[in-house]
Amino acid sequence: MLRGLDDIAWSGLSHAYGSAEDTPALLRKAASDHRKVASDALSELHGSIFHQGTVYEATVAAVPFLAELARHAPQIRADFTWMLGMLAHSRHAYGDEFPSVRAAVAAQVDLLLPLLNDGDHRIREAAAYTVAQAGTAAGPLWRRWEVEDDPAVRASLALALGHVDGPAAGPVLADAAVNGPPAVRVAAAVALLRAGLTWPDGTVTAVVDAIDDGATVTHRWAEAEGWYDELVVAPNNEVAADVLGHLLRAAKPDTRRAGIWAMGRRCETRRSAPAVFVPMVVPAIDDPDPHVRGEVIGALRRAGAVAGRFADMLAPVAARFPQVAGERGFTDEYRAVETLLLLADPRWIEPVCAAAAAGHQPDLSTEARFSPTVLAEIRSRLAADPARADVLAGVVAQWGTDAAAVVPDLIAAIPYAGSQVAWALLDLGHDEPAALPYLRAEAAQTGNLPAALAVWRITGDTQPLLDILRSTLSGARQAPPWEVSGLGDVGDGLLPLLPATREHLTGTAARTHPERQVQLLAARIVATADGPAAVLPTVSAVLAGGDTSAHLAATLIAELAQADPAAVASLEPQLRQQLDDRWSRIAAVRALARLGVPTAELARPLVHGIADYDGQYAVTAIVELRAVETIPALEDLVAGDRRFNTISFGDDIVWDDERLQERVRSAIADLDAMATSRWWSQPAAV
User: Fold this and answer.
1) Which Pfam families would you find in this protein's record (predicted)?
2) pTM, rounded to two decimals
C-alpha cells in the first residue's frame, strides 16, 4: 500500500505549516492497524493539508494516497472517504489550489465507485457523498439505490441522486420525502430543494415530524451553516412560512429552536423576510423552554429594524442586565441591550450605567445608533454622573460630528474617566489639552500613533511620535494595518527618521504583509520629506502583491496623486489592474480619478466595490468622485431582495445591509442633485 509515496518531492510542496515533508510519514501512520494511531494521523493531515478548509499543493499530491487508504486501510476507511468528498466540495474546501484538488479527486472516482457496495454501511454512506462530489455518472448511484436498505445510506444516496441526476430523480425523491424513514425523508426534501423541484403535498408535515424524531443531515452534505436552514431559506414565502409554522409547533424544544434560527438565516439572505417571518417567532417568547425564549431574543438581535416593533418587549429584558452583567457569555439581557443600542432606543442607557456603577465594564462593541433623543439622554446622564463616561464616552465617539454637542460634557468628565474620554475626544477630532497626560501614556505604553500625533498637535513635541516610528521601523512594533492620516502634516519633524526609513525601500515587496506595512509606512515618511520619486518602486511592488497591503499602497498613491499627479502617472496601468482586486479596487479608483481618469470608466469597479469588504468605503468614494454614472446600478442594488454581500459579524448581517441601503439611497439623492446641477450648468445643445 502507498506505493510511490517516496517518489514525490514532498519537501518542495507546501501546506498550512510550510514544507510538506512531514506528509508521507503521516500518510503511513494513517495506514496503521491501530485505530488511534490512524485517527491521530488523519487529524494531523486535516490540520496541515486541509487546514480549516484551505487546500494546498501538498493536498493535490496526497489525494491518490487518501483514495488508496479509503479502499484498503485497516482502520477508519469511512473517514478517509468522507475527507475525499469534502476536498471536492466547495462548501468545505477553498483556496487557490481547490480546482486542482477537485480534479485530483475526480480522477479517483472509478477507484472509489466499488465503495458503494462495501460491506460496511458507514463506508457506503460516505462513498455516496464522495462519488457525487467527484462527478460520477448517475448509473452506479441508481443501482445502489435499488438494493440499499440502510436508512443512513439511503439518505446519502438521495442527496447524491439529487446532486447528480436531479430532474430524473424527482419522482423517487418526492415519494421518499413523504413516505421514507425519517432520515431519508429529510434528505429527500433537501435534495428536492437543491434540484429546484417542488415538494409534494404532505412533505412539510413529514419532514418536521422526522426532525422531531431526531433525523438530521450530516454536516458534510450541508450547504449552509445548519442544514435545516435550507428548509426555511430556499422555498418561496408560502412554503417557508408553512415549514416555520410546523417547526415552531414541534414537540421538542430543539426543533423549535432550529426553526427560529433558520428563520434568522432567511432574514440574512432576503430583505423582504424580516417583516414576514420575525412576527411569526415572537410569540415563542412565552415558550415553556428557556432556551427557546432565548432564541427569540437572539433572533430579534439579528433581525434589523423590524425589531423596533418589539422594543417594548425587549426593554424589560434589558432592564435586568445589571443583575447578570458579570456573567460570561451572551446573556438574553445583553442581547436585549445590544438590540436597543442598534434601534437608537434610549432604554439601554440606564441598565448599562447601572452595571458600570456596580463595578462591571459592559462590552459595548456593538455600534449604538445615533438619535437626538439618545444624545440628549447621554448628556443628561453625564451631567448628573460624569463617572459614567467610562462606558458612554466610547458610544458617542462613534457618531462624529453628530456628537459635537457632547464635547463639553466629555471634557468635564476627564477627572472621572480620563483615558476613555481622551480616546472619545480623539475619535471626535477634538485635541483637548486636558487629555494630554492620557494621550502621552497611551503613546508610550501601546505605541499608538494617533495618540502620539495628538500629542504633537497639542504641544509640538514630536518625540513620542518619533519613538513609536523608530520602534516600528526596527521591527520591534508592528505597523498599523491602516493608513496613518495626518502623518504628512508633521513635515520636517520626521527628518530624523530618514536613514532608518530608506533601508525599507528595496524596490521589491517584503515577504509578509506586516513587513509590507512597514515598507509603506517608510514610504510615507520619505515621500513627505523627499517627494514621491524615491518611494514609487517599492510602493508599486507592494501594490502588485495584492491583498490588504495593496489597499494601503493604492491609498498612498491616491494621496500622492492629489498633491502631484504627474509624479505618479506612470502607475496608472498598474492601478487599472487592481480594479479587479477586492481589497484595493476602491483605493485604486480614487488614485485613478486623481490622475484624470473619467468616472464613467470607473463606474463598474465603484459599484462592484459596494459588495466588497467595506461597502461604506465604496459609497463614500462614489459621492466624493461625483460618479453620477453609477446611479442606475445603485438603484438596482437597493431595489433587489438579496442583501449586500459584505463581510459582517454573524449577528450584524441584516443591520449592516440596512445601513448600507440607507447610505446608498442617500448617495443616489446626492448624485441626482449633482446630475441636475451639471445639466443646468451645461450650455444648451445646438
Assistant:
1) HEAT_2
2) 0.86
